[in-house]
Amino acid sequence: MIASVLPTYNRAPLSFVSGEGAWLTEADGSRYLDLGAGIAVNVLGHANPELVAALTAQAGKLWHVSNLYQIAEQQRLADMLVEATFADTVFFTNSGTEAAELAIKMARKYWYEKGEPNRTDIITFEGSFHGRSTGAIAASGAEKMVKGFGPLMPGFVHLPWGDMEAVKAAITPDTAAILIEPVQGEGGIRPMPDADLKALRALCDETSVLLILDEVQCGMGRTGRLFAHEWAGITPDIMMVAKGIGGGFPLGAVLATENAASGMVAGTHGSTYGGNPLACAVGARVMEIVAEPEFLAEVNRKAALLRQRLEGLVAAHPDVLEGVRGQGLMLGLKCKVAPAEMVKAGYAEHVLTVPAADNVLRLLPPLNITDDEITEAVARLDRAATRLA
Ligand SMILES: *Cc1c(COP(=O)(O)O)cnc(C)c1O
After folding, report:
1. What CATH number has the domain bearing residue 361?
2. Distance (Å) from CA 96 to ligand 1 centroid
3. I need a labelling partner for 193 at 20 to 30 A (CA). Which of 12, 60, 168, 302 fits?
4. How many domains does the chain have?
């Protein structure tokens, strides 16, 4: 008999009833150190008092009115994002997948309005993940996501990750946009080198192709800058954000330049819930905290500490671990065993991690994890690796 919850996940036999900072607690009181943060979502940890206050204050006033009306909290968060980034305009969604859908629509509409309706192709990359809608799985093209769900949305050109020559060769008069994660998350914490991101920007400038960055996982302070592309000194035309922006409350956004968004006039897109007062009140508090230079400096300091400890861990377990990669607090441990085995061994040591493709174990702790918790986390990972030796 089918489970009452549609069985699309292989869930661990763990169930948490409360959380505090980087810790999660089960009903029997056992505590787990959380290096997954709800898959890069809880950037300020669990039950963060500042976010609880923002949420409850708004909850007592107004939850939802729809986008038929002005929403002050949405306006405020949009202004903050415009102020802090390349963007001139923002559309709010409830998830990363919905942000992907709008990014795709926006790029196609842009060329339609420019009088080049043939320009609909979007270049994407092997190992990419943009969500689970029919459009987003077509964008990724990964066999395990698309198999059985055809016919797929046409218009995506899939290229090998990091092959800049292939990108140059793939651009045609039908190319609307390039869509890429500056650091692949699900694909195994694979950062695109700064030089390649710069080259992509230059190529887009030469050809007028729009550059869409998917920062759903690597954005919102995760890499030690507010957005990962800042490391390369470039800006996109369109950017997808979600996960961390709500600090655990469902919220996503598409940020764009005035030019890239020029086709999206009244009536061309919408969302019932997107940008509701509750989500935006929390998102604004997350932005106020995470976008602070002092906060981001701390992320970088802690990231250096964690990375150094992880290098030591790899050196101590050469039969289980192969190397560390990633940026900021978006780190991957390349494993010599199946990463799922490391995740399981971590459960036994009460430390939570997330597997990814390319044999990588993902570490995506809350950005406000403490130095002591980093020490404790590495001690637990050390014991987990010992179990597998
Ligand atoms: C998680 C993720 C998405 C999809 O976001 P959802 O909120 O799960 O819809 C898209 N792109 C990237 C890079 C992601 O990590």
Report:
1. 3.90.1150.10
2. 4
3. 302
4. 2
Task: List the CATH number of the domain containing 203.
Answer: 3.40.640.10
**Ligand 1 atom index nearest CA of 40:** 15
Q: How many CA atoms lie within 13 A of 312 on its CB side?
A: 11
**Do 208 and 140 have their domain in common?**
yes
In this structure, are residues 84 and 287 in contact, taking their beta carbons and an 8 Å threshold?
A: yes
For the CA of 95, the nearest atom of ligand 1:
7
User: Is the same domain home to 120 and 231?
Assistant: yes
Query: Ligand 1 mean position to 204 CA, how many Å?
Result: 24
Kindly state the percentage of the chain with pLDDT values over 70: 100
Phi-psi group of 307: left, alpha or beta (phi > 0 → left; psi -120 to 50 → alpha; rest → beta): alpha
**pLDDT 10s digits, 201-242:** 999 999 999 999 999 999 999 999 999 999 999 999 999 999
Whether 67 and 212 share a structural domain: yes
Q: How many angstroms separate the alpha carbon of residue 284 from the centre of ligand 1?
A: 20
Among 231, 197, 210, 201, which residue's Cα sits nearest to residue 328?
231
CA–CA distances in Å: residue 365 to residues 13, 81, 310: 21, 23, 14
Pick from 243, 360, 362 the residue to mutate for probing ligand 1's pocket: most ligand atoms within 8 Å of its CB. 243
221 in contact with ligand 1, CB cutoff 6 A: no
pTM summary value = 0.98
Q: Which domain holds residue 272?
A: 50-290
Confirm or reject: Cβ of 246 under 6 Å from ligand 1: no
pLDDT digits (tens, 9 = 90+) for 180-208: 999 999 999 999 999 999 999 999 999 99
Do 228 and 90 lie in a common domain? Answer: yes
